[in-house]
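$ ./design --mode recover --in tokens.txt
reading tokens...
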């Protein structure tokens, strides 16, 4: 197309220039999309007093309240200590203690390394909060994480749905195990 009118040429050039600037500084939403943060929140009531439940979950050197965990190893003491959970086929999850508040009955940790067959997640952070309810204990387990594959188009076993399902299974198994051992 040949434009002979100078005024029309200027308008056309300005329009092209504006489109070019727009494309450079406002990239398409779809080209920058990655995984979204997933969240899980599960609660359980335990027929045991809060002190007994707290004594179990606040001991970072143990995780026997999840029956799938076969061995626990801890390096360090207190905030920043590292807990390694070993499973049946020697799969490991490594956790770092982030928060331990005795008065408020809150414990929080972050997963440093994980085996995707057990917990297919990235940037996993968990918090457990206890609340006394007439001599029983309400346990709230919250977890936030990204799926096991951080890029676009993840393989099925590392997508949002499967990562969340496995994380929820881990959380529920932990809560049910906690209930079992603290109600004895």
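writing sequence...
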């Amino acid at each position: 197309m040949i434009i002979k009118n100078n005024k029309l040429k200027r308008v056309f050039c300005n329009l092209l220039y504006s489109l070019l600037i727009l494309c450079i500084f406002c990239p398409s939403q779809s080209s920058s999309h990655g995984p979204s943060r997933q969240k899980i929140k599960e609660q359980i009531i335990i027929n045991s007093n809060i002190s007994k439940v707290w004594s179990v979950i606040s001991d970072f050197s143990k995780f026997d309240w999840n029956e799938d965990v076969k061995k626990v190893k801890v390096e360090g003491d207190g905030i920043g200590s590292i807990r390694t959970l070993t499973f049946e086929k020697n799969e490991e999850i490594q956790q770092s203690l982030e928060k331990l508040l005795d008065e408020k009955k809150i414990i929080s940790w972050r997963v440093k390394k994980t085996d995707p067959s057990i917990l297919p997640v990235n940037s996993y952070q968990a918090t457990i909060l206890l609340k006394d309810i007439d001599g029983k204990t309400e346990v709230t387990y919250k977890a936030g994480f990204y799926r096991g594959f951080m890029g676009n188009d993840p393989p099925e076993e590392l997508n949002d749905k499967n990562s969340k399902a496995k994380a929820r299974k881990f959380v529920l198994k932990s809560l049910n195990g906690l209930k079992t051992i603290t109600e004895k």
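exit 0
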